[in-house]
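Minutes, project check-in
Item: structure for the 478-residue chain
Input as provided by the requester:
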Amino acid sequence: MNKNRKTQKWLLFALVLVAITSCKSLKINGKTENKNVPASYTSSQDTTNIADIKWKDYFTDPNLTNLIDTALNNNQELNIILQEIQIANNEILARKGAYLPFLTGGAMSGVDKTSRYTSKGSSEANLDIVPGKATPEPLGDLEIGAFASWEVDIWHKLRNAKKAAYQKYLSSVEGKNFMVTNLVAEIANSYYELLALDNQLDILKQNIEIQNNALNIVRLEKEATRVTELAVRKFEAEVYHTKSLQFQIQQKIVEAENRINFLVGRFPQPIVRNRTSFDALVLDTVNAGIRSQLLNNRTDIRQAEMDLMANKLDVQVAKAEFYPSLNIRAGVGLQAFNARYFLNAPQSILYSMAGDLVAPLLNRAQLKATYYSANAKQIQAVYNYEQKILNAFVEVSNQLANINNLKQSYNLKNLQVDALNQSINISLSLFASARADYMEVLLTQRDALTSKFELIDTKKDLLHARVNIYKSLGGGWK
C-alpha cells in the first residue's frame, strides 16, 4: 500500500515538472509600451485646461446645448455602445462565476434490464436482495442528490480571465466616453456650419439688392445713351448668377439640418437656432494645459490602455493552460431501485468525492497557437496605445497652430471686406460720372461678395477649431 502511494506521488511530481518545464521552453517576444512624451505642447506650464470644462458650460448657446442633450439620449450609435457595455459587464459576471464551485441538484429515474448471459447478469441472478428473492427484472433506478465541482485556481488562470474581462469592461466604458466626445463635437460643428450658411444667405440677399440698384442705374444710363445694351445685359447676368447661388446655399442648409437631425436621432425637421448669434460668438483664448492632463482626459488613450492591460492578462491566461489543472468533484444523495427504499439509511445513501490533476503533455499545438496569438495581440495593443498617444499630440499641435493662423487670417479678411465695401460705393460714383466702366463695377461687386463669404467661412473655421481643440484635449465627455 505504501509502495503504491509513493508511486502515485512520484507520478504526480513528474506530471507537474514536465508541464512546467515544457511551458518554460516556449519563447515569445513581448513588448513594453513607450510612455515617453513631450513635457508640454509649448514652453508654458500653465495647468489651466479647457478639457476640464463641462460641455454645457463650454457651449453657451441654449439651442446648441438642447441639441446635444437630446442626442445623448436618442443617438442610435451611442445606444448601441451602451449595450456593448452591458455585454462586457455580463462577461465579468461569467468569469467571476468560473472560479467559484458549481453546485447542481437533480433527480433521475430509469430502468435497466441486464442480459443473464453476461458476467453482470449471471452474478445478479444468484444475488438476493430480500431472502428468497433474486434481483428484480427489469431493475429500476431512482436517484436524487446534489453534486458539486470546482476547479482550484492554482495558477490564477480563472482570476486573470476575470481581471481581463473587467479591463475590457472599462475599455468599453471609455469607448462610450470617446463616442460622446465625438458626438458633442460633431453636433457643435454642424450647428456652427448651419449658422454660417444662414449668414451667407443673408449677405447674398443684401448683395442682390445692391446689384438690382446698380442694374437700375445702368438702365437709366442706357436710356441716356451713355452706355450700350451690352452693359445692361452684363449687369442682368450678374444678378441672375447671384440669385442662383441662393438655391445652392438653401440646399446646403437642408443637408446641414438633416445631418444634425440624424445625430439627434429624429426625422428631418427645422433646427431651432438664433440666426443672428453667429456674429456675436466670441473666439476666446484656448488653454491647452500640460501633457499629463491629455493622457488623463483623452478617452481613446485610456481605452487603448485598458485594452493593453486586458491583453497582458490574456497572455497569462493562455500560459496557464500549459500547467496542470486540479478539479475536485463531490456528490451526496439517495439512490434505490424502488422509492420505498429511499429512507432506508444508510443503505440508500450515495456519496462520492474525487480529484483530478490533468496537464497537457502531447499534441499541444492548439495551446501553443492560442499562447502565441495572445502574445501577438498584446504587442499589437502596445502599438495601438503608442499610436493613440502620438495621434493625440499631433491633433492638439495642429489645432493650436490652426487657431493662431486663422485668427490672423480673420483679422486681415475683416480689413479686406471693409475696403471692398467702400470700393462698391466708389465704383458706382465713378461709373455715374463716366470715370469707370461697368466691368469695374461688376468686378468690385463680385469681389466684395466673395470676400464676405470668405470672412464667414474663416469665422466658421475658427469656431470649428475651437470645437476641435476641445475634442482633441479630451473635453466633452464629462
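Outcome recorded: The first helix runs from residue 2 to 24.
No further action items on this chain.
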